[in-house]
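Hey,

The postdoc asked me to send both predictions to you directly instead of through the lab channel. I've kept everything plain text so nothing gets mangled by the mail client. Protein one:
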Amino acid sequence: MDKKVYSRTENVVVSASVHRELPLEKLATQLEGAEYNPEQFPGLILKLPMGEGKSSFLLFSSGKIICTGTRSLKEAKKAIDRVVEEIESLGLPVTEKPDIEVQNMVASGSVGGPLNLNEIIFKFENTEYEPEQFPGLVYHLPNSHITFLIFGTGKVVITGGKSEDEMEEAVHTLRKQLEEIGEL
């Protein structure tokens, strides 16, 4: 594998269910870092100090939790566990282990060399490029839910993956496709 071709996870978004109703008004008054304005948004926004992490959560009365801001699935699971501990500390028992599901991952990476985006737009399908609006080319990887933002430097932002392996494989697939059309 080419060492200049890589992906590094920047954000993992997971959903979880704590299998119980959550009294959002009570949580809003008793959890530090909670914001709840049901007229504007039906969920409670929670930002907990997580050591190094900058995790944010959306809690819904149904018991569903969305967590964003972690850099790995392991970190996301720890963050969800922390929220469960906070909920339980308020006398609201969570009797089932939360079901955690990755919704999206975002990674930064590189295909290993500079690119001519003006050429790629004509050689790849599933692309959008308006350099007057934004310097990156948007490329939807065929037969996949992965989307790339590709920059002339060869740097990429990858979104839509559900695992770090999938993201890494996608950047190598993109590299191969670029080689096949003579762009690398």
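Protein two:
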Amino acid sequence: MLDYALLTFTSLFTVINPISIMPAFLALTEENTMEESRMIALRGTAVAFTILILFAIGGNFILSFFNISLPGLKIVGGIIFFIIGYDMLQARISKTKVRPNEQMKDEGDIALTPLGIPLISGPGSITAVILFMKESVFIEKRLMLLLSIVLVLSITYLMLIGARQIVRFIGSNGNKMLLRIMGLIVMVIAVEFFFGGLKPIVRDILMI
């Protein structure tokens, strides 16, 4: 149970990656006051929490409705994680999280998009919660996953409201170093997911 808790927490934390969100958040809120920035961070994490919980709870229905197998989802998830991890290894925000035209501040509520979606709850984190919930047979594991979502988003919120101080403290080089370390972790998780999904498919092919 402890291993599963650590796996869900580290996977979600590295895929959401608050460190890579901080520079984008600062750019989005540079004209806002401290209090306004805090409210944007709170609303953004609340939106992300709602999205991840909805996909965690409704993930099995989505897979059943579209007839998607768990091995297939693992393979796709592994590919998505690998792309995210590779971008992080290059010390840049993943293209699967945000596109240049989504960084405009004057279009709608930035707490909803791009902060809540897709910076915090992007394709990687959504795929991760669906995968973990699908594999969670016991209620204890499902509760661990929900707790991991709460903890990761709580840490994300705290890092966003303290983003100015954190970025100033670690500096540009420190931020890039942390991004690369977390990118390496994400790529390792990606390989585990990919081959975890590929193994049963290859086994079925060989048994035909």
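Summary for protein two, as requested: Residues 193 and 208 are 24 Å apart (CA to CA).

Thanks,
C.
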